[in-house]
Amino acid sequence: MADLLRIENLAKRFGGIVATDDLVLNIADGELHAVIGPNGAGKTTLIAQLSGQLTPDSGSIYFAGKDITAMPMYGRSALGLARSFQVTSLFLNLSVLDNVALAVQAHAGHSFHFWRNARREPELRDPARAALSRVGLSARADLPASALSHGEHRQLELAMALASKPRMLLLDEPMAGLGPEESARMVAMLRELKKELTILLVEHDMEAVFALADRITVLVYGRVIASGKPGDIRNNAQVRDAYLGEQEAAHG
Amino acid sequence: MIRAVNLRTVVGIALLVALILLPVYVEATGSRFLLTLFTRIVILAIAAVSLNFILGYGGMMSFGHAAYLGIGGYAVGILAFEGVSSGFVQWPVALLFSAFFALVTGALSLRTRGVYFIMITLAFAQMTYYIVAGLARYGGDDGLTIQKRSQFIAPINLSNKVQFYYICLALLCASIYLIWRIVNSRFGLALQGARSNDTRMRAIGFPTYRYKLTGFVIAGTLCGLAGALIANHTDFVSPAMMYWTRSGDLIIMVVLGGMGSTFGPLFGAVALLVLEEALSGITEYWQIILGPLLLLVVLFARGGIDGLLGKVRHG
Q1: Quick one: A69 and A100 in the same domain?
Q2: pTM metric for this prediction
Q3: Does A77 touch chain B (CB under 8 A)?
């Protein structure tokens, strides 16, 4: 299987804190790869570097064979690398449909069109409605995004990521703050999505991770301590020590 | 989808109709003063419309917008002084210089955010103020009297006060329509997305800097037009027209009228300048009354006049 995303010797420091430490990770085309690790393991920092929000100190990132290490965020998005945010990050004063339509618009060429009413363009609105219906938000399309519940915000996040027709999704804790029912719905949705997309999933919800992931990588202090199939990770002694259910053993 | 016709649109259009009929009233009562006042209001409303575009829809808190009034005004004033009185030259020059100034200062300012953006736009405007005040040939601090208004082909005659008023009003209507079209276009949505959440816009693939800079240039150019008009209105330009308190007045108009609304800047310009005129007739310390009024709007009516009109309908 070809690697869609390759991360080579990535490093990022914040003052004395090493957030990413000589990290090497390859993600195959079509897999759902979960990254887990205790708080402060550098998971969000890793996603931020992959999406272009942070620039690494050293190392390289390749997406679909292209070196994207120094590429700005919008460039990566144009290549098909989409990201959802851990802290929900939406256009709260725009309507739900506007939010998704903007994601469509981002990939429909440049936006230097000054005259035509964009809210009446079927080539923006139709794909946006389709993405909303996939995540089950069709009925809420015309509300302002600020009127949705937390769980619905997560669904909207996903709809926006989908609407940009990505090859790969970077998902930063999509289950964070969801109730059991909403979590179950999100897991079902991700199971559908993984059929057509490569996904890098950062998640604390272990049940979800083991239910969904093809492979799992465990980060501790910015370094990979284990990487493999869910079964191998579950039985890995080092991981158990460092993380799974035995966090007290790993402090210090 | 079209929103149902609501009260704010009705009031906005009613106000425009009243403005159209104003010269009839002036003719009947012979109060030339009212015509002068409202010509000024209409011109400054164009400036407010342009500021609202970047402030209300683009989230760019420019504190130097009066610079464009000055640049547009001085383009007309200096050309007239040098013997070029054709409006076909003066006005394009006014627009071009405003656009260029917006492009250069915007390219630098938009690399900053928040308070720094406010400060840097203010600094650029003040710089322009002092440069113009230092132009001894063109009157320096004292300003420059314009002997002859911009010349266009007959029958257009800007010296005819009623005709000039209607030209300004037509340009105001055109500005409101233009900005309304842009706001609802792809470009406008990209701009509003950047105001709402810039990081997210870049994450989904928008190079937001370009869009914001373009918006900044559009607003500057439109305000330059208001500058060319105001120079013709007062037959005089001086550095005072680009002083930072003028930029403040424009911000007050936009906030008072309702940021990010179609007719808000028009409401704001009319409300502020009429209040100013009425209150200064009562006391010379009229700002003591205006200040608390503004405070009330900011504290209790976030959407300004436009927001209040919206509430009346829903509540």
Answers
A1: no
A2: 0.85
A3: yes
